[in-house]
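Q: I'm building a small set of examples for a reading group on sequence design. Run inverse folding on the following structure and report the sequence directly after it, with nothing in between.
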């Protein structure tokens, strides 16, 4: 006996001739259709198109076995091929129940996000109490991804026209830091698929796919942006936030160098992710050299790594890793011999990031710190801070 279920036929038309025709189309025995479609329409002297249209118009075929697991409605088949492809299925949910369930899930997700937003708003700080670094980060994020009316922050994955920070990996850290510190919260209007509920109904968000809302006490939208900008550009902001601003500049200098190194190695098709050792080495170099000078040394180190690979006998990975040692040797030689390291110009492929523009050009009034004008080195910038 076949696994396939039988059919219950419902007729829309009371005409016995039409009913008989529909029955011939749908008659199934042992899971197989008794007659071929071609035989029926030829018998009747009509075209295949006319015949299938007639069957569709005048009859409905329901499964005698398979029912919606939620509401019990039997599975309905539109055509014979629909029956053949779906009749083996035992677990079935009808379209209406699927839509209802999807809607309920979306509501549950939204509810979790509304609760989280309310918690965040209840603990929101006024602008004056925000960490100066968070003020700079939020300023940059609003500038980078703020919606047209500044009502919300667009999903990170949808903004691709410029850079938020010098290094893409760090963009996520910036957003995460604002989120973890309650400066932004996930917007409940975010697209449903960017949020998942676990078995305990806790919401997990796809970090780069959700929209964000700033959670600052007393202001939102354009007003918040205007107040934030005024707050950051107040003369007292630099005085009060000298330490965090200096740390932010140091961080950006490091990121500029790492982004440059990544790009330089990519040009030689040597993929590389900077580890702690590289970071530490670049930080040390930045105590002596400007960003633009460090980029020069990194460029040479990348070129050496490429030459090392081309001599043969080593893997790309091994060659890429040799960049750290080369960089260290070049740096030590430059210092010991008091070489004048020519500053590099900013590479066209690495345009100045939004955060860098805001901090150097708007806040500190220096042009593209570390790059434009070799006299603007980071120690100078730091010295400019009272
Ligand atoms: Zn159902």
């Amino acid at each position: 006996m076949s696994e396939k279920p039988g059919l219950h036929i419902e007729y829309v038309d009371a005409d016995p001739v039409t009913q008989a025709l529909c029955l011939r189309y749908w008659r199934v025995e042992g899971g197989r259709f008794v007659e071929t479609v071609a035989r029926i329409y030829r018998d009747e002297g009509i075209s295949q198109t006319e015949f299938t249209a007639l069957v569709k118009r005048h009859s409905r075929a329901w499964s005698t076995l398979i029912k919606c697991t939620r509401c019990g409605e039997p599975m309905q088949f539109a055509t014979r091929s629909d029956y053949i492809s779906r009749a083996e299925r035992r677990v079935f949910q009808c379209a209406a129940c699927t839509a209802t369930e999807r809607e309920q899930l979306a509501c549950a997700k939204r509810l979790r996000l509304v609760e989280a937003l309310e918690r965040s708003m209840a603990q929101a700080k006024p602008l004056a109490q925000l960490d100066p670094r968070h003020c700079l980060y939020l300023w940059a994020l609003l500038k980078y991804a703020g919606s047209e009316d500044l009502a919300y922050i667009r999903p990170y994955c949808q903004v691709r026209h410029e850079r938020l920070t010098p290094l893409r990996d760090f963009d996520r850290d910036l957003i995460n830091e604002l989120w973890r510190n309650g400066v932004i919260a996930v917007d409940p209007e975010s697209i449903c698929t960017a949020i998942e509920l676990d078995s305990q109904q806790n919401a997990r968000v796809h970090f780069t796919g959700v929209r964000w809302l700033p959670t600052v006490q007393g202001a939102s939208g354009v007003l918040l942006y205007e107040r934030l900008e005024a707050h950051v550009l107040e003369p007292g902001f630099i005085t009060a936030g000298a330490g965090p601003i200096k740390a932010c500049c140091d961080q950006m200098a490091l990121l500029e160098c790492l982004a440059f190194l990544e790009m330089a190695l990519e040009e030689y098709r040597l993929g590389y992710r900077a580890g702690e050792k590289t970071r530490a080495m670049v930080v040390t170099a930045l105590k002596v050299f400007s960003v633009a000078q460090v980029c020069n040394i990194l460029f040479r180190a990348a070129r050496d790594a490429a030459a090392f690979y081309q001599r043969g006998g080593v893997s790309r990975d091994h060659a890429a890793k040799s960049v750290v040692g080369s960089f260290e040797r070049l740096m030590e030689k430059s210092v010991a011999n008091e070489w004048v390291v020519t500053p590099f110009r900013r590479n066209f492929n690495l345009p100045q990031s939004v955060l860098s523009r805001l901090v150097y050009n708007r806040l500190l009034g220096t042009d593209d710190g570390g790059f434009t004008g070799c006299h603007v080195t980071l120690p100078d910038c730091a010295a400019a801070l009272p």
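Residues 165 and 171 are 6 Å apart (CA to CA).
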